[in-house]
Structure formats: structure tokens, C-alpha cells
Amino acid sequence: MDFHDMIQSLAVRNNNKIVMLVSDGIGGLPMTPGGKTELEAADTPHLDALAKVGVQGMSLPIKPGITPGSGPGHLGLFGYDPMTFVIGRGALEAAGIGFACGPNDVAVRCNFCTVGADGKITDRRAGRIPTEESAEVVKTLRAVKIPGVEIFVEPVKEHRFVVVFRGEGLGGNVADTDPQVTGALPLDPAAHDEAGQKTAEVAKEFFNQAKKILAVQPKANCLTMRGFAKRPNLPGYEELYKLKAAAIAVYPMYKGLASLVGMDLVGQPATLEEEVEVLHENYEKYDFFFVHFKYTDSRGEDGDFDAKVKMIEELDKAVPRIMELKPSCLVVTGDHSTPAKMASHSFHPVPTLIVSDLARTDACQAYSETESSRGGLGHFEAKYLMPQAMAHAGRLEKFGA
Amino acid sequence: MDFHDMIQSLAVRNNNKIVMLVSDGIGGLPMTPGGKTELEAADTPHLDALAKVGVQGMSLPIKPGITPGSGPGHLGLFGYDPMTFVIGRGALEAAGIGFACGPNDVAVRCNFCTVGADGKITDRRAGRIPTEESAEVVKTLRAVKIPGVEIFVEPVKEHRFVVVFRGEGLGGNVADTDPQVTGALPLDPAAHDEAGQKTAEVAKEFFNQAKKILAVQPKANCLTMRGFAKRPNLPGYEELYKLKAAAIAVYPMYKGLASLVGMDLVGQPATLEEEVEVLHENYEKYDFFFVHFKYTDSRGEDGDFDAKVKMIEELDKAVPRIMELKPSCLVVTGDHSTPAKMASHSFHPVPTLIVSDLARTDACQAYSETESSRGGLGHFEAKYLMPQAMAHAGRLEKFGA
């Protein structure tokens, strides 16, 4: 029996709310073996109080030893096996700018490049043309028209932009047109399979029209296309969990990922405090809330241990206002660890806390890596966290008689 | 996505070294419930010091409740699912005498037997003919010649020997010729599939020639053939992990297993002390070192608790000299447990310690079963230990963006 089929058959609707508070990259490392992690060094009285009545465990984002990117990290948290549901590069880039790909969309990462009179590439990144300039050039490409296909052209950063082709029968299996070297012509888009054939033709037409438009641009007179991808074919939250789900996030990437699984994007918060207010405002309208806090990851990526500690303390301060809502199940976790010591995502598992009237309280006295590693939830793959949350909110029926 | 494909795509080359110290059968049991295991009774100051800064967990060689033989036990440690990659009996027997089967080899376990004038078996084990006598008879079989096939005939112990056929197009799927009862003729080798057909013909020709040669032998005048097997088709360490790997072992079985996954066999050590010196001598030439210590298993198999404790203390004494090399990742583990109380391999999980600058130190204060069972690595299948070691040595890149 497929696990998703099981979840789908057992999920029930009721009024019990689930709040999943994701502190990006929260897991850490001691700067010196034997020392304290960022989370252990932080003063977190509210989370620690919840730890005493809740239950903790270690969430493994993918498999032991594997460091996840944000895409697979969040897919796991949302309950999808990140080794089964892979988000192609184009779809991830689109998600990253908050563009929600639909089922008929093929997303492509594009790079501006410069070519000589012979059409051969002289700079594969168009001199990393500044973002503002690039965005203006990107907009000129919206003039491209192809019958039967809707086209979206969106700036990203510097020479990078996203093109989405929307239409019936467009497959995602098309080769990159970037030859990877200068002195070569951009490649023709080549289909890897039959479904990719129509996309390849559309892409070629797009390229031809775009090239004419770009001819007048001194800095970025051509483009290459990479990572053609459809959105992963995954069941949404409503279908899978019978949950009306809302995503509350500041950054486009996390909004994009949430929209891939069918969450509504609510509010326009700019801070964690504002995110919690958006949660309050929308609390009656939804069953499930994904609340994303970015800065634990950002300060970890900076390699700044003390700044990450401060961000964890910020997180802690938001907890009482969340708990005013008395959710049936509060989950506190992260999509991966980002130890300041490594200044990057890491493979270490993520301390995870569930607070619920149905939690079987364990011996943990604080929310921390050391405590979580011996907690009542054990060590589990992140994809099993959603079923745990559902169960702790009384939203999963018995399997079998 | 297949896990090995993922590992292969994420593995990177660098200069970070991994030492995997495998103390065979190290896990144990208290002689009386509630007492101490061999490891807990042993005085192990060096391992305990490492436990305070490292991270521990419980390695499950195969699945809960399953007792592994040395073959599957080591395959798991080397990162191959022992339920997917099965080493056929012939290939394991060959490995056991340190014979490295190549991709065109079919290995067969042979038994000397005795037959009467009618050709029917009178003793299936040729009276367990003594090893030295048997070895002399085995050598006479090297006179067998078959066009297009290279043949290796190697003694094992008592009535047992190994035959390896090397040649193009030889399949391993051939039935045993041992009828399993006395009073019956040895069976003709029968192919189970088309690929086995040529092997069956070769085996029949070998049997016919061998029988003539053995006719003059009073004690062992015939043979049976069992466990036809090709080596498992597994990716080697270089291909899978991008690791140049060395095996340092005293016993042929472990050298054979290591060679199946592409490790180089280095040195001719006879003691643990010599193994550690071989490690020092070869340290610059390799990325990964499998160091095998046999005697914890041997004394466990003897049912001698105190002697196993002493062997664990020997192991501990070797640790400082290993740590002089400052490996990026040291793993201390076993391929299975061998409790003296059971005088055999057992199903119990194996205490496992990782020491690395990237280890998330847990609360463990000693290297032991009790501490390991609550360690930061959790309980995991042995096949995930290599990815953990790779990650702790900074040799795996991020999955997804």
C-alpha cells in the first residue's frame, strides 16, 4: 500500500488546527566539539516550557548524511518523499520568485548572454548585467507571441530570468541550449522524448523572436535556456490531507514551494511579528498554517553563531502569541540544519517539537538538539512529520478494523 | 531516485580521510540481564574520551531481529543494502580465501566425496579429509584444462575447496550437483537459465576430467559442486563514493569482501598493532581505510566473556596511534554483535561512534551499547553509515537547490 494512498484514505475533516512553525536552518553545531549548539546557547524560555509538555524527535530531511537544498527540504516537511518528488530546476527557479506553476506549465531558467556578429557566445552571463538593467530588458521579451501558448517572462537576478510556457501537451523533457562554453552557438532546444517535442518547437520560436528583440541591446543581445521542467506531479494538501492550508512567508522561494502543494499564500508580512499577526487574522479560515521564519538560516549561512542565537531568541519571543490561538497541534521544526560553523546547509538532523493535547510527553526539558535526539518521537524521516502532525490533531482515522 | 545514484551524484573528491575501524562482533550482552556487556565491562579510556566529543548511534546490520553472516554484515557497513546485493555462496567462499572474483568469473564451492564402484556417493564429505591432505589432492585438479576457460582450483578446509571458472558468457544460475543424500549419483550440473547453459557444460567437463584424476585417490575419489555464483554486480568504492579505498585486514575473508567493492588490499599485517602501522604507511595514498579487527568476534564465538573484554581493551590501546593521523572522520563500529553469552553472531544492533570536527556532540559519555542506544545518530541501518561517514568528512554535496 502506498503511504500517500493510506494517508488520503484515513484523513478526516474537523476543526482542529495545525500550525507548523518552520525555522529555516534551525539545527546547528557547537563551534568546538563538546560545546553548545546555537539553539542550546540561546535563551528560549517559551520553547523550553513547551518542550516540557510536548514531545520531541529528530527529523532527517532526506536520508542520513544527505544535505538538502530548500526545495527537497520543504517537500519533505510537507510530507512528500524528496527522492520521489523531484522539483526540476526550472520549476524551482519559478517557485523561487513566487511564480506558481500550473499543470500545463513548463518553466525554464534563462540566462542573458552576449554573442558576436557570427552568433557565437562571447559571454555566457552577459557580464552579470545588473539586476535593475536586466529586469528592463526582460520586460521587452514579453512582446514575444506564439499562437496557442501563453508565455510569462519574469526577472530573477542579474543575467537570470524565468520563462514559463503554458499550453496543452507541453512536456518538460528538453535539453539545455547553453553550450557551456564561449565561442559556440547557442544550441537548438532538443526534445528528449515525444512529449518534449512541442516544447522544443515553442522554445525555438521563442528564441528566434527574442533574438530579434535583443539585437538592439548592447549588453545582453542573446539568451540561453536551461532546466526545462514541469511542476512535480504531486497531490495537493486538500487532496492528500483534506486540509485547507495557508502559507505565511516573507520570501518568494517559500511561497513558491508552498503554492506547489496547493497552499494559499496569505498576507504580505515582512517580519515574524507580522507573520504571526497574519496567522491570527486568517486563523478561522484555514486548517493548516505553514509559518516560515527565514533568519535562522540566513545568520547560519553568514557563519555568525551569535547572530543566529539572537534570531532563535526572536523566534522564541513569537511563541506566546502563537499559543494564544491554542492550536490542536503546534509543530516547531526546520527544513534542514544550517550550522554557523559550516556557514551552509548541513546533513545534520533537525530538532523537532510537537505540542498537542495528544502528545506523549517525554523526558525532554528543553527544545534542543541533544534533547531532541533522545525524544519520544525518535529519529524519523521528515516526510513522516505531516502524518504525525495530522495524528496529533486528531485528523487521521484508524487503519484497518 | 535510487539512493546509490544520489550518493554517486553528490560525492566529491577532496583530501579528507575516513578511517573505518571495524571491531568484528563488538556488540555484546550482559551475562545476566541488568549486568554489563563486554564493552561496558572493558576499560576503554581512549574510546570513552572520543565518545565525549563524537556522536554515537546504533547500527542495525540488516533489519531488526536479523542476525547477519560476515558477508551481509560487511556489505551493509560498506554501504550496500544486504537484501539487494546478495553474495552467492560460491563468491563468498572465494572471498573467504581472499580470491577476488572478477566480472567474468563463476565461483563454485566444491566438496570432496567418496563414491563406490557404481559411482554412487558413500560419504558426502569424504570423511572430512584433513586440510593438509585435502590441499594436496586439490592441487592435482589444476591439471584440468578446458578450451576458452581459465580455471582456478583453491583449497579451503577439510573436504571443501573452491573452483572458479573465468570466461566470457558464463552465467551463475546453475543448480547444485550434490544430491544431498548418500546412495545417489552426483547430479549433472543443470542450468536454471540460458546464461547458465555454458557454465553447466563447463562444469560437466570439469567434473568428468576431475573424476578421472581423482580415481586414484582412496579417500576422496569424487566431488560435488554447490553454490555456483558470480560476484554481486555492485558499484565499487571509486565509482560510488569517489574514494580510493584501502583494506587493512589479517584474515582472508575480510580481504575478499573488501576486494569485492574495489578496495586495495595493503600490507601483510598479522596483529592490530601491525595493521595500524600499515595504516600509517599508506595514509597519504588513499582516501578511505577499512581496518578490520577480528578477535572481538573470535572470543565472543568462544563464549569467553573475559577474553572478549581483553580484546576490546586491546582495541582501545590502538586508538591513540590511529588518532595521531587526525582523520577527518573516524568511525568505530562492528559488522554485527557476537555476545559471549550466545557464543555466536547475534541480531543485536552495533554501538557505533563517529569522531569528526562536524560531529554534533551528543550526551554520550562512553563508547557503549547503553550510550549508543541514546546517541545523536539514532538507530539506523548499517547501509547508511557510509553516507554518514562521507558527510562527516565533507565529501557529499547538497542535494537540490
Explain this structure.
The structure is a homodimer of 401-residue chains. With 401 residues, chain A is α/β, with parallel strands linked by helices. In chain A, the strands form two sheets. An eight-stranded mixed sheet of chain A has the order 9-8-10-1-11-12-2-13, sandwiched between helices. Helix content of chain A is 33%, strand content 19%. Chain A is globular. In chain A, helix 4 packs across helix 9, helix 10 packs parallel to helix 12 and helix 11 runs antiparallel to helix 12. Chain A has two domains: 243 residues, Alkaline Phosphatase, subunit A (3-Layer(aba) Sandwich); 138 residues, no CATH class. The longest helix of chain A is centred in the middle third of the chain and has 21 residues. Chain A contains 14 helices and 13 strands.
